[in-house]
Amino acid sequence: MVLILLGPPGVGKGTQAVRLADELGAAHVSTGDLLRAARREGTELGQRAQKYMDAGELVPDHLILDLVKEHLRGIDPGTHVLFDGFPRTTAQATGLESVLEASSRRVDRVVLFEATDETIVQRLSGRRSCPECGAVYNVYFSAPKSEGKCDRCGAALLQRSDDAPATVRKRLEVYREQTAPLIGFYESSGAAFDRIRADRPVDEVYADFLGAVGKG
Ligand code: AP5
Questions:
Q1: Quick check: is 127 catalytic?
Q2: Is the confidence at residue 216, as pLDDT, over 90?
Q3: Would you call 36 a catalytic residue per the annotation?
Q4: N or C terminus: which one in the chain shows less Cβ crowding within 10 Å?
Q5: Catalytic residue among 39, 105, 160, 195, which?
Q6: pTM above 0.90, yes or no
Q7: For ligand 1, is residue 8 a contact (CB within 6 Å)?
């Protein structure tokens, strides 16, 4: 199965993708995570992506498509793949079709997660991430046991620089202009398409998510 998790920044795509990927033994492909790793490693891609990410803008399509193609080379074609935060433009969606066609695959399902801007702004302002193991917390909804420290590995938690309020507003604007058109694109693509109200507790959203992918 090739599944796309679509939805605005901070709606909870990553939270749900990690959980489903664990349960299915699927590959979780988050372009945001791959870009942040490239930045940490100081690669050329990481350096080129930095200014776009800091401004809340999209990294150019050709860089993202090269990154995804390269990453998919390391994943067995028989493995379920969950795309999180990709594609984000129509050019990325058509590029993905070509990449998948090369291995006789296609996008099977798309799940759109929806929430109000108010919910999103609160979630992003409360998000804290572990730079060591990648665990994600929220000071309002899922706080670590010890303030500022990762429950799993004890590392000091960080707030993402693009979760600053002005950058969040820009990311929401970019989502509406450049990514929301993918809703119509995928509704008419032949892939199974579901919408999930994501402004509810994580477990409730996950139960609907499992149902949408036929595992409920
Ligand atoms: P990326 O990292 O993809 O960010 P995003 O799409 O903006 O999504 P987020 O990671 O912010 O949110 P999420 O929906 O995964 O929510 P999460 O589960 O963490 O991209 C960052 C940047 O990289 C982009 O701006 C762009 O510059 C660049 N980029 C990336 N991909 C690109 C692409 N394809 N093309 C071009 N540029 C690209 O949850 C958020 C918080 O809420 C957490 O604290 C979580 O604990 C909490 N939470 C989650 N669910 C719930 C719930 N149900 N109830 C309460 N709290 C919840």
A1: yes
A2: no
A3: no
A4: C
A5: 160
A6: yes
A7: no
Residue 92 CA to ligand 1 centre (angstroms): 18
Q: Which atom of ligand 1 is nearest to the CA of 136?
A: 46
Q: What is the pLDDT of residues 119-136, one digit of tens each?
A: 999 999 999 999 999 999
Percentage above 70 pLDDT, the chain: 100
CA 12 – ligand 1 centroid, Å: 7
Mean per-residue pLDDT, 136-164: 96
**Ligand 1: nearest atom to the Cα of 85:** 3
Report the alpha-carbon distance of residue 197 to residue 35 in Å, rounded: 28
Is residue 160 part of the annotated active site? The answer reads yes
Q: How far is CA 160 from the centre of its chain?
A: 14
**Mean pLDDT (the chain, rounded):** 96
What was the pLDDT predicted at 37?
A: 94
- pLDDT tens track for 14-45: 999 999 999 999 999 999 999 999 999 999 99
DSSP string, the chain: -EEEEE--TTSSHHHHHHHHHHHHT-EEEEHHHHHHHHHHHT-HHHHHHHHHHHHTPPPPHHHHHHHHHHHHHTS-TTS-EEEES---SHHHHHHHHHHHHTTT----EEEEEE--HHHHHHHHHHEEE-TTT--EEETTTB--SSTTB-TTT-PBPB--GGGSHHHHHHHHHHIIIIITHHHHHHHTSSSEEEEEE-SS-HHHHHHHHHHHTT--
CA of 18 to the centre of ligand 1 (A): 12
